[in-house]
Amino acid sequence: PSRRRRGGGGRRSATQRGGRAMPDARNAIPAPRALGERSIRGGDKLRPDGLNWHKPEDDILNILTGDGPWNYKAIQVRRQAKLQAFGQADSDPWAAMSQQERKAARCRAELERPTITWSPITLDVVKQNHFRSAPGLFYGLEFPWTAQGLSELGPEWLTEAFHAAKTLPEDNWITGLVMEKVIKITAGNNAAKFLFEVKYARPSPELHTKLFAKCCFPMTPATQTDRLSSSVYKQPMDFLELNTYRCLEGSLPVNTPKFYFGDISNETSNWVLITERVLFTEIHGIDLSKEMKPFDIEGPYDKCKDWMLRGEDKEYYLLLCDQHARIAAAYKQGKIPWNYGTPPTDPAAYAMNPKQATGESPTLCRTKLQSALRFMSETAAPLYQPYLSEEDFQNRWTDTMLKLNAYSNELRYWKMKEQDYVSLGHGNLNTDNAYFWRDGGGQLDCGIFDFGGFGVSSLPHNLWWMLNMAEIDQVMHNLDTYIEAFVSRYKEYGGPSLDLATVRMMVIITALQNTSMMVAAVPNTLKMCPAKEWATIKDRHDPRVASNVDGKSTLRSCVHVLNSTTRIFEELSGGAVLEQWVQEVYVGQWGKAAKSEAVINTGQEGGTAR
């Protein structure tokens, strides 16, 4: 139907827009238990609408007696009558193609469109416009960015959106929408999430009725910091996730949830993503004593809680290494189209300077480090290693982190310089961003989601960011095994050969860089859990740390990663690895003189501290 393209944050009700709300979830149709490209259609049966005449020539009667608004029925009756007049009553452009072929065709059509780009925005853009409705970059529709907004816009908007994205056939439409009220999703650090269920005029095993939505955090006191982080400091992270589903669903060599709609506004930074719902068997709570059936989807798992995994940690992370290798190698072979740039290789693009510290002000950096040390060695001491309170450790750690800051841009250039070590990849493939199942023979398999920031980047960097939320004891024990597994699979799948020692050096240095990020997050951690509370927190399993505080895992992640990376520094000789890089790469390969103590501690040669 021809309508004004507006979506809003949910100002108009479903009934105002021609939709008809479903009375309750009992009217919903069960969905196929999809595992990305794999589907199990065992006992799920779709209940027909209306009287369901079975003869092809009676399709018009099925439309008339089915659910849905009459304006849609009228359009479909006219279309079906025209098809029947030309002897094409059973004509369905999707019927001759498999699900994967349809995905590939949709993605090809998206890639043939002029490239859509993101224009960088400022904090003020988000603060001043986050409440406004605006058209999306991809489909030109205004869209809801909250659960309430989607509920109010209802089936008619969903139909228009799915038609625009070419994920719902033109001769089908959504007749009902039920928001999930029992299951609340509070995992993750970068977005809000919710579940809902739909009903189609023409049910099909290829159309999921149980759906998942991901959208921007609201600008509330509890989530404003995270919203500004993802919308501004990490931009275009959200844009890239939507684009990955929109354009690459048909070419990624891994399982992913089926895409239905996604869009983002460059005017407001608001966005929404709708995919099939991953049917986690244990969505109401993980019970490790319960036996799982073949193809039951485990979890969902959560960040920094790998003790919930049903098998050995190593088995899961080796599988994730394999997923990284498949994507990276496929891109190197030209099998994954990517229109959104690659990191520069020109040294001039990195603002390197042998006479200055290329990170932040060393004075500011030292202040942050001292604050983090007080937090780890005093405020939250029971959660960290005893040696963090020792003066020798604190001096060595501070010196290393200041040196890391001095070579900030040089290290960024080094990680992007050698193109064999750079490819397309997932920048946050923790166990909570994958869904796992075992086949009839007990073999572990998985699909992946959460493609925020998906793009071309350093492969060892992505390896560390896969491991940074894992149990650090097993990471340190198995690190060389993970590196060897990735390097060998990358080559096996068609990528170039990588040097194991170079990959390891890059992983360790990335862990130190991750430390810097979490050091900067300590003030927010103390905001989420005030200092007085820590006096009675004795371990990381305390609910004040372990739960998703304010509906996100930000606090727990900061505490966890600081512990992991300080242990990497101390127990895997992180400081020595950084000095090795200075001597072997910066001095030996690049022919530069090592930066002086004055540069490291004051920011410039012969200058005062800045």
Short structural summary:
The protein has helices at residues 59-65, 70-85, 99-112, 123-129, 147-164, 224-233, 237-248, 313-332, 362-379, 391-406, 408-417, 459-467, 472-492, 500-520, 522-528, 531-534, 543-546, 554-571, 574-589, 597-602, and strands spanning 33-35, 38-40, 174-179, 192-200, 210-215, 259-264, 271-276, 422-425, 434-438, 444-448, 455-458. The protein is of the alpha+beta class. The longest helix has 21 residues, at 472-492.
Care to describe what's here?
The protein has 610 residues and is α+β, with helices and mostly antiparallel strands. The chain is 42% helix and 9% strand. It is built from 20 helices and eleven strands. Helix 12 (459-467) crosses helix 14 (500-520), helix 14 (500-520) packs across helix 18 and helix 14 (500-520) crosses helix 19. The chain is globular and about 85 Å long.
Short descriptors:
globular, 20 helices, two-stranded antiparallel ribbon, five-stranded antiparallel beta sheet, single chain, 610 residues, disordered N terminus, alpha+beta
- Rg, Å, rounded: 26 Å
What low-confidence regions span 5 or more consecutive residues with pLDDT below 50?
1-54
Termini separation (Å)?
Answer: 62 Å
Spatial order of the strands forming the largest sheet: 3-4-5-7-6
Number of helices: 20
Class by helix and strand content?
alpha+beta
Per the principal axes of the C-alpha atoms, what is the gross shape?
globular
**Helix-residue proportion:** 40-55%
Instruction: Say how many strands there are.
Output: 11
Largest sheet: 5 strands, antiparallel
What fraction of residues sit in β-strands? Answer: 5-15%
Mean pLDDT: 87
